[in-house]
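dumping these here so i dont lose them again. two proteins, back to back, each one seq then structure tokens. dont judge the mess
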Amino acid sequence: MKAGEVGRIIDTILSIPGMNDPVKIDLKMSRKQVLLLSNVIARGLNGKDEQADGLLESLSSESKGELELLSAECLQKAGLTELYEKLRALGK
């Protein structure tokens, strides 16, 4: 499929009624998984994922901001915010 077609399909799926409704998800994750998830989110939002399928490219800035907040909240709850920032600084 062409990128434009993929974007339209994803936009259609994200427009389905109820997609903006909040859901409660009770997750038990290791700190390692939290660090890895935050890194994957950051890479995807920064366009550093070469395997992108068009989903992240079609997200609005509001949706991207929500993903960044989710990542930050997970790091904060795991007590890993400072470590994550230091690891990011090493990677630059």
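---- next one ----
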Amino acid sequence: MTLFILLIVAFLVYYLFIYRADNGSQTVTSKVNRCPNCNSIVEKDFNVCPICKETLKKYCTNCGEKIDVHWRFCPYCEKPIDKDVIK
């Protein structure tokens, strides 16, 4: 009976501390920045993709902060982004 209880406790410890921790870290690594054109892994600070030279970042024409190409508004100055201007 004691061995059975120890096995149950070992399984619970494994599940709570090891199995769940390993699965939680996989969700963090799945949030990798990728190029929308060629799907290559890119750093979040890159302005262009080093593989296909797709523009990833541009500068807001109002405040000059670096912003994502797909954003519709600048999060810094709240100005709507003109899609034609890529600086």
